[in-house]
Amino acid sequence: MTSMTKDLGKGLDKVVASAAEAVADIPDGASLAVGGFGLCGNPIALIEALLAQGTRDLSVVSNNCGVDDWGLGVLLGAGRIRRMTSSYVGENKEFERQFLSGELELELTPQGTLAEKLRAGGAGIAAFFTRTGVGTQVAEGGLPQRYDGAGGIAVASSPKEVRSFGGAEYVLEEAISTDFALVHAEKGDRHGNLVFNKSARNFSPLAAMAGRLCIAQVEELVEPGELDPDQVHLPGVYVHRVVEVGRDVEKRIERRTVRTNGEG
Hints:
alpha/beta; Glutaconate Coenzyme A-transferase; 2 domains; 27% strand; globular; disordered N terminus
């Protein structure tokens, strides 16, 4: 290896020492794209570091908002989130309370549309047309985004452009880009190449792409060249900081379904 290659390798080293250091420059009022699918793949170390430093008034884009005492739910419970863009919010009672009381703004977005909005934001695509939502309030407007605390709607969604292609109607959806992205990966190298585990891959690569500055917590940090390039789910060009959290980082199950012995 030449000295130039070694210097280049050092320049590409994106590892930071701690989660606290990784999120230290996220300011009040920032927008975040956060990975995870249910509780799977939640970047909990980064979320808890953000909670500890007191950052507030956040606008968060994520498939869901965790549960009352875990995931993004810890930021929500502390009153740190101003606005959520999500596709599922059904596991969090505090979320329901804040939304109905007018404390929290919500843009409810179909799951596949949300995924594509994040991907488009990362790919530099301004907007796209989709059939999802045509003929509903998603396209026609009127979805409650903020209540007034007395049962009335303070802010409702606006109508979106609908056009016909090939005899079918499609609604125009704008891409999403955020100031920062927070994701959890099973493995990552010092250059930021990431490998996700199973359903944690559903939204995390897309959230990472959408953030102008992406921070990844990884269970296992490896050296450049140790990851099979064909197995990399997100290339390091999208990732700016990497922090190792270890294999023992807490993971939770959203709903556990069991059966007694002898049941078919």
